[in-house]
Amino acid sequence: QVPLVESGGGLVQAGGSLSLSCAASGNIFSGAVMGWYRQAPGKQREMVATITSGGTIRYGDSMKGRVTISADNAKKTSTLIMNGLKPEDTAVYYCNVKRLLTPRYEYWGQGTQVTVSS
């Protein structure tokens, strides 16, 4: 069973918005950092945004000011709202959950494609 499942990707015109969701199975958000990463063809995977179970948020430079991350520990979901999308935001977006305290684990979702047309 895949612990993380993303949804919400798709095709959008430049300047548009998309909301991505990540649903977790099991209580894997507790004490963990939840994040969204993306990988464009031929490029390394990069961090878009992360949020700790305590609510501390970090944004990557590439989309800072255009994205908002949130998490609902009770619903076991994480959401990434993206605004002002650009063609260079085209990538596969992945949900990630990482726990550094014992028990340690890290999970990745299967990814969801976001394509921004010019």
Characterization of the model:
The protein has 118 residues and is mainly β. The protein is built from no helices and 11 strands. Strands 2, 4, 5, 6, 9, 10 and 11 form a 7-stranded mixed β-sheet that branches. It has a 4-stranded antiparallel β-sheet with strand order 1-3-8-7, with no helix packed on it. Strand 4 and strand 5 form a beta hairpin. The termini are far apart. The model has no long low-confidence stretch (mean pLDDT 93).
Q: Percent of residues in beta strands? A: over 45%
Tell me the number of helical segments per DSSP (H or I, 4 or more residues long). Answer: 0
Distance from first to last alpha carbon: 37 Å
- SSE order, one letter for each helix or strand: EEEEEEEEEEE
Unreliable parts = none
Shape: elongated
The secondary structure category is: mainly beta
User: Rg, please?
Assistant: 14 Å
Number of strands: 11
Question: How would you state the average pLDDT, rounded?
Answer: 93
Summarize the structure.
With 118 residues, this protein is mainly beta.
Descriptive key words:
single chain, 118 residues, mainly beta, 7-stranded mixed beta sheet, 4-stranded antiparallel beta sheet, 11 strands, 53% strand, elongated
